[in-house]
Description:
Elements: H1 6-29, H2 38-103, H3 109-116, H4 120-139, H5 141-196, H6 214-225, E1 230-231, E2 240-241, H7 243-253, H8 262-268, E3 270-271, E4 282-285, E5 291-297, E6 300-303, E7 312-315, E8 321-326
Parallel strand pairs: 1-2
Antiparallel strand pairs: 3-8, 4-5, 4-8, 5-6, 6-7
Amino acid sequence: xxxxxxxxxxxxxxxxxxxxxxxxxxxxxxxxxxxxxxxxxxxxxxxxxxxxxxxxxxxxxxxxxxxxxxxxxxxxxxxxxxxxxxxxxxxxxxxxxxxxxxxxxxxxxxxxxxxxxxxxxxxxxxxxxxxxxxxxxxxxxxxxxxxxxxxxxxxxxxxxxxxxxxxxxxxxxxxxxxxxxxxxxxxxxxxxxxxxxxxxxxxxxxxxxxxxxxxxxxxxxxxxxxxxxxxxxxxxxxxxxxxxxxxxxxxxxxxxxxxxxxxxxxxxxxxxxxxxxxxxxxxxxxxxxxxxxxxxxxxxxxxxxxxxxxxxxxxxxxxxxxxxxxxx
Length: 328
C-alpha cells in the first residue's frame, strides 16, 4: 500500500511526463486529446502562419528601405570624406605652425619675455597664428559650407537607420520564434501522419511533407487531397486530372489562376533555385517542359503521371528536372 507521501510524488512524475504531449492538444481544442489529428495541427500551423506572414512582409519592406537608406548613407559618406580630408589638412597646417612656434620657444610667454625683454613678441606670435588660422578657414570656407550641408542631411539619416536596424532585429526575432513554433508543429504532424496518414505506395509519407501555412501550403494541401484520383487527359478536376490540370486546380483553390498548359505555367511562374523550393512550388520536367508536378516538401511532389494511372506522390529526382516555378 502506498504511503501518503509516495503517492503524490508518483502522480507528480506522471503529470510532468504527460504535460508536454497534452498541452498541445489542449491548446488546439481546449480539451485534452491523446493525439491531435493532422487537421488540428494544420489549423494551428495556419494560425501561426497568419501571425508570421504579415511580419515577413513588413520585414521584407523594412529590409528594402534599410538597404536603400544604407546606400544613401554610403553615398553621403563618400561625399563627406574628401571634404573632411581638406578640413583636416588645413587644421594640420595650423597645428604644425603652432608646434613649430612652441618648439623654437617663440610662443612661450616666458621665453618671449626672457629673450626679448618685451611682452610684444608673444602677442605678435599669437596674432600670426590667428591670421594663419583665419587664412586657412577662408581658403576652405566653401568646403566647410558644403560639408555642413551634407552633415545636416546625414545626421537624420543616421538616426533613421539606427531605428530601422532595431526594428528589423525585433521583426527577425519574432519571425524566427514563430517559424520555430511552426517547425515543432510540423514535426508532431509528421509523426501523426506516420501512424495514420500514409496510404501505401500512392502516399508513402505525410502529405504535404512540409506545411508552413499561406497560399502555397494550401495549394500543396489541395494537391495531396487529390491523391488516388484518375488521370484523364485535358481534365482539371475535381474528379480527374492531367498533370497541368492538377497544378491549375490546386492553385485555383488557393486563389490563384494558372493556365492549363505546362509551358504556359512555366511562363506564368517565377524562376527559383532548388535550394529555394518550398511546398506549393511547381517542378517542371524534360527539355520540352511536357510534365509538371507540385512540390510538397522533403524532395517529394504530387503529380498526375499518365493515362491509366492516378494522382500520387513521387520523388522529384525520379525524372529529368527542367526548372522550378513559384506562383506569384
